[in-house]
Amino acid sequence: MDALQLFDVFDDPRGEDFTVGVEEEFFLVDAETRALRDDAEDVLARAHPPAGCVIDSELKRSQVESGTAVCRELSQVRASVVGLRRTLGEAAAATGARLLASGTHPFARWDEDGGVTSSAAYLQLHDTYGLLTVEQSVSGCHIHVGIRDPELTIAVMNRVRGWIPVLVALSANSPFWMGHDSRYASFRTEVFHRWPTAGIPEHFADRAAYDHLVAQLRATKSIDTPARLYWDVRPSARYPTLEFRAPDVLMTIDECIATTAIVRALVEITHRQAEAEVPFEPPRPELLRAALWRAARFGLSDHLLDLEQMELRPAPEVLQSLLALIRPVLDERGEWEEVAATLNFVEREGTGALRQCRAQTEADGLSAVVDRVATATLAGTTWP
Hints:
Helix content: 40-55%
Shape: globular
């Protein structure tokens, strides 16, 4: 849940603008029963991450987390993600388990998944938040983008807030909850937002306003550290980055890479706007919550709330508005074709959530969903 220690093997780009690092959370499932396995410690002991990358335990004993190196190029992100998924997949296989890139497990119960990891930080969370902690059997993807200037970090966060629902819709990969079709594309979003410090942050006048709020929250013992701000986007508590925490863990490697490219391009284009003091009107928090709920409910399968036009529009059209905004950056970086190819796959086959639902219908069972998602976890955009 908290940022991993991201190491660097690429000429020390830390402290540069627009470097990226990606954290992914995964479930461990039994290869035979498809149920959750609570032996993350055994898997981690067998896994040897690529140079510059890290692996670690997560909130639940049935989860593991990976962290890439700090990267300049998208190809470096891909190399890290491929290496991390592969090494964790191999380590899991050695214990009779499989790695599962899904925002929720299709049928496992949170009260039967082995419980909270026995670390001081996680046990403190459990002591503070009780049952809320135990039910957080969800897996996300966190994308860090480097911004050196703390003031610009807040300015960029202000400007990207309105696009968070689109990122949720695009990454939606958690339709099932404890054996039930939740009717949500990203039920993980609904579960995770039960934390009192979760959701899209409000607009801040400047860095001083953000720092003042953090100080107030700490003084009132609402949080013990800025790392307990579980916002969908936040200044990292440890690194000179803006951290995007809204996406579900992406089912395939290519989807993870494309989402990373989109997030970085969004940061870069809004960074330019902030530096140029391009005027913009922050959306009201009530409208942001409405947009976020709709994104979690429908993914890309229905209408989304266009916060610029202030109307409901077909989800693909709202996604195209985001792509039109960021394409200049993607073109400059030579990343557009790679992103477009993955988005064409998503347009053709659907988001991870839609593919999970289709698999359940075709196979008439949730065990088959686990099998197909576990296979896709180690693939590119191949959907078995």
